[in-house]
UniProtKB/TrEMBL annotation:
Signal peptide per UniProt: none
Protein name per Swiss-Prot or TrEMBL: Pentapeptide repeat-containing protein
Biased amino acid composition, Gly residues: 38-48
InterPro entries given in the database record: 5peptide_repeat
Keywords: Repeat
SUPFAM superfamilies reported in the protein's UniProt record: Pentapeptide repeat-like
Location of the region described as Disordered in the Swiss-Prot/TrEMBL record: 1-69
Source organism superkingdom: Bacteria
Keyword Repeat: yes
Amino acid sequence: MGRVCTGQRDRSEGPEGQVTGIVSGGVQDGCMARRATGGAGGTGGAGVKGARRPEVRLPPLEPFGGGELEPDGDYDGLAFREADLAGQDGRGARFMDCALTGCALDETSLHHARLLDSVLTGIRGVGTDLAEATLRDVELVDARLGGVQLHGAVLERVWIRGGKIDYLNLRSARLRDVVFENCVLVEPDFGGARLDRVEFIDCALKGADLAGATLTDVDLRAAAALEIARGVDRLAGAVISTGQLLDLAPVLAAQMGIRVEE
């Protein structure tokens, strides 16, 4: 197929679907506050449910003491600042109430890790392995990532804001209440993923793969650019603008077997 352009938090780690309501706040003395926006936030309007942003309130944080990550490690209330975590093995680790700022994550293994009530700012890396990880109540700001593996992961109440992510692998992942804002996604792979209440706000999607994906209340109207390389037939359950529909018309017609001739 051709390409076309167009408050308290829940610390119980309960089952998917038990959601609360993030609004950006400041960082002072290691403490970041968020205020809940409630149900129909962002670009959500009549007929589409808006994503509910996470609520993150970090307590005063202790600096990470250095050393390497440990498999199944438990990191609670820590500030990782400019830490070089490249190539380290943190498989199955749990990060609760943590701030990762300016950290290097090249080839870092965080397979099946859990990132909960945490803020990641300015992280960078190529080949970061977050396959089958859980991200719940997480804010990711100004990331520079390439080839990050999130296949089979669960993202719930996640706000990805700013930055650029190349070749994001979200195959068979589950995204619920996720907002992509002011970021660039180059060839993101949503193949076989489930997207429920996901918003793209001033976000450029370049060469997105939606093959086999299931979309429910996905709002693409405010996307800065929309390029779908595969899976345009999976847009049922998404909301697009009139202009985007016109851009998609040739591929939609081809998908339906309609010949368009003058």
